[in-house]
Every structure is written in C-alpha cells, then in structure tokens.
Amino acid sequence: MNKKIKEYLLITIGMVMVAAGMYFFLMPNNLAVGGANGIAVVLHYFIPSMSVGFLMILINILLFIIGFIFIGANFGIKTIYASLGVSGSVLLLEKVVPMTGPISEDLLIQLFFGILISAIGMGIVFNQNASTGGTDIIAKILNKFLGIELGKGVLFSDLFIILMAGFAFGPELGMYSLFGVIINGFLVDATIEGLNIYKEVNIVSDYNNDIKDYIVTNLERGATLYEAKGAFTDSKKEVLVTVVDRKDFIRLKNFIKDVDGNAFITVNHVNEVLGDGFKNIQD
Q1: Backbone φ and ψ of 264, nearest 5°
Q2: What's the CA angle centered on 59, arms 46 and 75, to 5 degrees?
Q3: DSSP string of 5-19, one letter each residue
Q4: What per-residue confidence (pLDDT) applies to 77?
Q5: Per-residue confidence (pLDDT) for residue 59, from 0 to 100
Q6: Cβ–Cβ < 8 Å for 244, 177
Q7: At which of 171, 195, 219 does a domain end?
Q8: Would you state the pLDDT for residue 216?
C-alpha cells in the first residue's frame, strides 16, 4: 500500500475513534478532558446556542496557525485533516445520532470507555506525525523543543481547561475531568510505544549467509554482521543482527527453524527505530 495512503488511512481511523469516544461517553457528561473538545464543552455551557462541533472548529483555526509556525507545513496539513475530521465527525454525530443524555448513570465507567477509545485514537494519529488538533498541537511543540513525552505534554496543556471545567460544572466533574486527563496522557504514550515496538534479533548460526539473504530479499530489511569468538570452543563465529517488526519476526524465526535448528538467537524489544526503512529521523 502506498505510504501516504496508509498514513492517511491510519489518521482517519484514529480521528474517528477520538470523535466517538468524546461524543458518546465524554460530552454527554460534561467531562472536559482537555483539547479543543474540552474548551468547546465549557464554552457550550456558557453559549448553548453554538454546538460543540462548531466551537471545536473555531478553536482549532487559531491553534492551526501556531502549529504551522512552530512545527511546519507537513504536520500542519495532516493536523488540519485530522482535526477537521474529528470536528466534522462530531457535527455529523450530533445530526445523525443525537444524544438526549448519558448512555449510563455510572460516570466512572463512561469516563473509562471515553478515555480509552479517545486515547488510543490520539496515539494512532500522533504516531503518524499528526494531531487531532486542540492542545495536542501545544503538546507536539513541547515534544519538539523540550523533549517532553506527548502524553505528558497533553496533560500540561490541559490543566487550565480542567480548572475551567471545575468552575463551570462544579468540583466533582472537575476532578473527574482531571482524572481523565491523567489517564489519557499515560494511555496515549502507551499506545505510541506499542505501535513502535520492534524486535532486535541477534543470530549465531552456521547458515548466516542463507539467513542474511532471506532478511534482505524476503523481509526487505537490513542486517549487520559481527565477528565473534565462542567462549567454549574458541572458534570464530559470525553474529547476525537485524531489527524487524513482530510480524516479520515470526517469519524470520520460522525460516531459521527450517534452516538451522541449532541456531542461537536472542531477542530484545526496541521501543523506537529511526532511519532507512523505519520512521524518519526528522519526524
């Protein structure tokens, strides 16, 4: 699949998840858990004639300008697509599936599902070097210039919104919103980390040439060969090292099993890989 198409497909999946989590679980309970949505929920309380979706669009326009200036056009274009997609999805849901009240009387369970769905969606979008708009843009700026993790950046950016929610809806909902923002930050980081986990595979085998050819030709990945010396036999050995995703690791392991059942293999989890064939180091 074309890289750009795949990128925008993943962004679309993420933004729909964000919109669904907010609309069905958070908004009916006035849970302002940050972002343009959180600001819009609070403003909607004071200006009920303006829909939450419409207010989100207005808020994002201002933050788009900031994103273009500090992060660049590539991030800005994808963020415009994602944030307009979230706002548009919310507007569409307001028309097609109007909510007359919360799905459940249990505020905590709705907070849980709303945050879970939205945070996973945000993590998917962030992983494509985009944002769902709102204070996510501020979080991305903090990440770029200060090295603050994206989830923590969202948390810092949203504290002011939580104070606004507490003032508008009372301290109880304000505390629930704060709890939601904290959990959201950790879930976003966990999602991004999970999407970027690779496996570093170290192989010692008498058939390293065959294994190397399989990695390069079939898996279309690179590999590095090191010369080593066996501690028991003092014989020279070659250590083959490669980095692959989880799916390719299964294929590689099955190939090695067929070629050399006595191969020695160690596997390490790698949380991020930058460079040719992986994530662009400039992102």
Answers
A1: -105, 125
A2: 160
A3: HHHHHHHHHHHHHHH
A4: 79
A5: 83
A6: no
A7: 195
A8: 92
**Same domain flag for 177 and 220:** no
282 inside domain:
no
Residues 99, 176, single domain; the answer is yes
Domains: count for the chain: 2
Question: Do the strands 264-270 and 224-229 form a parallel or antiparallel pair, or are they unpaired?
Answer: unpaired
Q: Environment class of residue 283 by beta-carbon count within 10 Å: exposed (0-12), middle (13-18) or buried (19+)?
A: exposed
Q: Considering the entire predicted model, what is its pTM?
A: 0.73
The widest CA-to-CA distance across the chain, in whole angstroms, is 81
Tell me which residues of the chain have a pLDDT lower than 50.
none
Q: What is the DSSP string of 205-249?
A: -TTHHHHHHHHHHTS----EEEEEE-TTT--EEEEEEEEE-HHHH
User: Does 230 reside within a domain?
Assistant: yes
Query: H helices within the chain, ranges in order?
Result: 3-21, 35-46, 52-70, 73-96, 107-126, 136-146, 150-169, 171-195, 208-217, 246-259
What range defines the domain where residue 218 resides?
198-270
**Which residue in the block uniquely carries the two structure tokens 């999407």?**
195
The pLDDT value recorded for residue 166 is 85
Structure confidence at residue 283 (pLDDT)? 56
